[in-house]
Amino acid sequence: MAQAVTKRGMKGERWEVIEILYGTAALADLPPVKLIALELNVPERTASDWVQKARAAGWLVGMTSNVGRPAGATAEPTVVDEAERR
């Protein structure tokens, strides 16, 4: 299956596999991009790009993971109150 989803033109199938692997990684408290790169035998940069594209295409809805992010980074933008900025 990994060979099939890494071929050009296999976007629907690819996003489905990305969603499965991302969800698996998030549940296992593992870095999703690293797991996807390992399982599909692609560079982490490619895996990261695919995660972003899958999310933009409507996949990964409601899925976030902070595993593997630098300390202080979040998957969701932080809203800062104006009074806190001063």
The pLDDT mean sits at: 80
What's the β-strand tally? Answer: 0
Return residue spans where pLDDT drops below 50 for at least 5 consecutive residues.
none
The DSSP helix count reads: 5
Spatial extent as radius of gyration: 15 Å
Broad shape: globular
The proportion of residues forming helix, as a percent range, comes to 40-55%
The biggest beta sheet, please? none
Order of helices and strands: HHHHH
Number of domains: 1
**Percent range for β-strand residues:** under 5%
Through-space gap between termini: 53 Å
Structural class: mainly alpha
Can you describe this structure?
This is Helix-turn-helix domain-containing protein. There is one protein chain. This protein is an all-alpha fold and 86 residues long. It has one domain (2-85). The chain has helices spanning 2-5, 11-27, 32-40, 44-56, 82-85. Helix 2 (11-27) crosses helix 3, helix 2 crosses helix 4 and helix 3 (32-40) crosses helix 4 (44-56). The radius of gyration is 15 Å and the shape is globular. The protein starts with a helix and ends with a helix.
Summarize the structure.
By secondary structure, the chain is an all-alpha fold. It has helices spanning 2-5, 11-27, 32-40, 44-56, 82-85. The chain has one domain.
